[in-house]
C-alpha cells in the first residue's frame, strides 16, 4: 500500500477569476467560486448575513412597485427618496414612521415642522410632491448644527437642503427643508460640501458644468466671495471631497478642484484624461482612498507623500473578468455601493430592471493587510444603499429594492422574496452560498491520487450544516464522480460565562474540525463547500486532505 501524504490549505486570498488553472495553484487558498461569502479580515471565508425588512413606502405611492432611488443614514433615522417623494423615517416602538418632506406649499419652499401627530406621517403643513425624481445623491456635512445637514441632488429637481434637529418622536424634532437655486432651473445630479461650499454639477442641465457656492453658504450661488462655475470638457459623473481638494469624476477623465477658498487661485486641474468613472453609485472612501468603477476595473484615488499629488491604482485584478463584464454592460445596470466600516468592506451591487432579486449580483471587497480580497453576492437587489454611524456610534446599514421595500442590510440569516399572493408579501428565502477551490494537482499532475479523508475547519456562530462536492479531473465525463457529502450539524463551542443552553455545544472549542472519508481518485481534485438554507453564518478556515499517490500516466 503506498504511503499517504497530507495536503492542507488555509482559506485566504478571496475570489480569483483572473488566473488560469495552473497559475492559481500558487495561491491554493484562493477560490474560483466564492458566492455569498465574505473574506474575514481575521482569516477564512464567512457566509454573509442576510437582510431584515425595515418597512416599505408602497402604501403611500402609486404605483406601489416603485424603486427606492436613494437612502442616507441621518439624525438617528434614514432619508428615503422613492417615486416622487422624499421621506424622513425612524423607528418608533418597533414601527417605522415616515414623514414626506420634499416640498412645501410655502412660496419660499422653506418651513419648520414642529407639531406632528405621533406615530403618523402627518403634520400641520401640507406638502406637494415632485412630478418626478432621479437617483438620489446625498451630501452630509456638519455646519455646526445638531445632526448636521444634508443636501440631496437628483438631476431632475433643484437641490434640497434638509436640516433635522432634535431626536426621538417627531414632536421633539424640528425639520427644515429648503430648495436651493443654483442657476435658474438647473437641476444638478451630483454634489458635495467642501470647506463650507456646495459644489454641484452633472445632470441633463449641467453635463459639463461645475457650480461652486459662496464661502460658508451652501444655499447661495451668487455673490463676490467664492461663487463661481467651471466648464469641463467631459461629462460629469460624480463629485467627492477628498482631503484638501474636490475630485470631479467624468466619463473619460478625472479632474480636481483646488484652492476653493482662494478666489484668485481656484482652478480645475486634470488628474488624468485616460481613465473615467462609469457610475457615481460606485464612488466610496475607504482606508483613506477613494474607490470607483472604471472601464478597466475598480480603481483607487490615493494621496501620496507629495503635497497635492494623487495616484491611480487598480485593486480588482483578481476579479478582472467579472468587472469587465459589468463595465461592458454598465448602461443596463443600476449601481449602488457602501462601505461597512466595522468590516473594512467595500460593497458594490448591480442589477438590471428585468432581473429578479435572485439574479441580482454584487461584489464585496475586504481590505486586508495584503490589499483587497474579493467575493460575490447573488440575491440582493440593492437599488439604493447606505451605511453610517448614528448618534450613539452604532453603524446602521440599509438597502432598498425596486418594489418600495427598505431593509436592514447585513443582518439576519436569510434573504427575502415577494410571494405570489395578492397583495404580495415578503417571505424568507434561503441563502445559496458556494466556495469552490482550484483544481489541486497536489504537486504532481502526472500522478493519480486516491483521496482517503478530509478534515474541514469551521467556525459556526450558532449551528451550521454544510455539504461538500468533490470533482475529479475537472469534471471529466470519463471519470466517475462521487456523491455529495454532508457533514453533521455542528454548533458553536461553549465558553464559560458566554455559552447559552441549546445554542452552544459544550465540550468543544470555538473552531470545529469535522472529518469525512472520501471516495474516488484522479489526477486533480477540487472541493466545493456549499449551503442553501437559513442557518446562521459560519466561517470556513481551511481544508486538510489525506491522499495516497498511485500510478503515473
Describe the structure.
The chain has 553 residues and is mainly β. Helix content is 2%, strand content 47%. It has a domain at 5-49 and 433-552: Sandwich (Jelly Rolls). The strands form eleven sheets. Strands 1, 3, 4, 37, 43, 44 and 46 form a seven-stranded antiparallel beta sheet that branches. The longest helix is centred in the middle third of the chain and has 9 residues, at 320-328. The chain is globular. The two termini are 19 Å apart. Residues 105-125 have low confidence and may be disordered.
Which features does this protein show?
single chain, 553 residues, mainly beta, Jelly Rolls, 7-stranded antiparallel sheet, 5-stranded antiparallel sheet, 1 helix, 46 strands, 2% helix
Strand count, sense and barrel status of the largest sheet are: 7 strands, antiparallel
CATH architecture of the domain at 5-49 and 433-552: Sandwich
The CATH class assignment of the domain at 5-49 and 433-552 is Mainly Beta
Relevant CATH superfamily of the domain at 5-49 and 433-552? Galactose-binding domain-like
What structural class should be given to the helix and strand makeup?
mainly beta
Q: Roughly what percent helix?
A: under 10%
* First-last Cα distance: 19 Å
Amino acid at each position: 500500500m503506498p504511503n499517504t501524504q497530507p495536503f492542507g490549505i488555509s482559506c485566504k486570498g478571496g475570489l480569483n477569476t483572473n488566473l488560469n488553472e495552473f497559475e492559481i495553484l500558487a495561491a491554493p487558498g484562493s477560490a474560483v467560486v466564492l458566492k455569498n461569502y465574505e473574506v474575514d479580515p481575521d482569516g477564512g471565508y464567512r457566509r454573509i448575513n442576510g437582510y431584515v425588512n425595515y418597512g416599505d413606502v408602497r402604501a403611500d405611492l402609486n404605483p406601489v412597485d416603485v424603486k427606492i432611488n436613494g437612502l442616507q443614514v441621518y439624525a438617528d433615522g434614514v432619508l428615503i427618496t422613492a417615486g416622487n417623494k422624499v421621506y424622513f423615517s425612524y423607528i418608533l416602538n418597533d414601527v417605522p414612521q415616515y414623514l414626506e418632506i420634499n416640498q412645501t406649499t410655502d412660496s419660499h419652499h422653506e418651513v419648520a415642522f414642529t407639531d406632528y401627530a405621533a406615530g403618523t406621517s402627518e403634520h400641520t403643513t401640507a406638502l406637494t410632491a415632485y412630478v418626478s425624481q432621479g437617483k438620489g445623491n446625498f451630501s452630509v456635512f456638519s455646519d455646526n448644527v445638531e445632526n448636521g445637514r444634508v443636501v440631496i441632488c437628483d438631476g431632475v429637481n433643484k437641490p434640497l437642503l434638509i436640516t433635522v434637529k432634535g431626536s426621538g418622536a417627531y414632536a421633539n424634532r424640528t425639520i427644515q427643508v429648503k430648495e436651493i437655486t443654483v442657476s435658474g432651473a438647473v437641476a444638478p445630479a451630483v454634489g458635495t460640501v467642501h470647506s463650507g461650499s456646495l459644489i454641484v454639477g452633472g445632470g441633463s442641465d449641467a453635463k459639463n458644468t461645475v457650480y461652486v457656492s459662496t464661502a460658508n453658504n451652501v444655499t447661495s450661488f451668487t455673490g463676490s466671495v467664492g461663487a463661481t462655475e467651471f466648464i469641463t470638457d467631459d461629462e460629469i459623473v460624480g463629485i467627492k471631497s477628498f482631503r484638501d481638494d474636490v475630485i470631479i469624476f467624468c466619463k473619460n477623465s478625472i479632474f480636481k478642484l483646488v484652492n476653493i477658498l482662494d478666489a484668485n487661485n481656484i482652478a480645475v486641474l486634470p488628474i488624468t484624461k485616460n481613465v473615467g468613472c462609469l457610475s457615481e453609485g460606485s464612488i466610496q472612501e475607504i482606508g483613506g482612498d477613494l474607490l470607483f468603477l472604471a472601464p478597466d476595473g475598480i480603481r483607487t484615488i490615493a494621496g501620496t507623500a507629495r503635497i497635492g499629488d494623487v495616484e491611480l491604482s487598480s485593486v480588482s485584478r483578481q476579479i478582472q473578468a467579472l468587472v469587465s463584464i459589468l463595465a461592458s454592460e454598465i448602461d443596463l445596470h443600476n449601481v449602488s455601493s457602501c462601505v461597512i466600516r466595522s468590516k473594512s468592506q467595500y460593497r458594490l451591487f448591480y442589477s438590471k430592471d428585468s432581473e429578479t432579486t435572485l439574479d441580482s449580483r454584487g461584489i464585496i471587497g475586504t481590505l486586508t493587510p495584503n490589499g483587497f480580497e474579493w467575493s460575490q453576492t447573488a440575491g440582493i437587489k440593492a437599488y439604493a444603499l447606505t451605511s453610517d454611524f448614528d448618534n450613539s456610534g452604532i453603524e446602521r446599514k440599509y438597502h432598498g429594492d425596486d418594489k418600495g421595500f427598505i431593509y436592514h442590510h447585513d443582518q439576519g440569516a436569510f434573504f427575502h422574496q415577494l410571494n405570489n399572493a395578492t397583495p404580495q408579501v415578503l417571505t424568507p428565502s434561503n441563502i445559496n452560498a458556494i466556495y469552490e477551490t482550484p483544481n489541486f494537482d497536489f504537486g504532481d499532475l502526472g500522478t493519480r491520487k486516491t483521496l482517503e479523508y478530509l478534515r474541514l475547519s469551521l467556525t459556526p456562530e450558532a449551528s451550521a450544516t454544510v455539504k461538500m462536492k468533490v470533482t475529479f479531473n475537472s469534471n471529466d465525463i470519463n471519470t466517475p464522480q462521487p456523491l455529495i457529502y454532508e457533514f453533521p450539524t455542528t454548533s458553536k463551542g461553549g465558553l464559560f460565562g458566554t455559552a447559552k443552553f441549546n445554542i452552544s455545544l459544550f465540550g468543544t472549542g470555538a473552531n470545529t474540525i469535522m472529518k469525512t472519508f472520501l471516495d474516488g481518485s484522479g489526477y486533480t481534485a477540487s472541493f466545493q463547500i456549499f449551503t442553501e438554507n437559513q442557518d446562521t453564518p459560519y466561517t470556513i478556515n481551511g481544508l486538510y486532505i489525506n491522499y495516497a499517490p498511485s500510478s503515473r500516466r
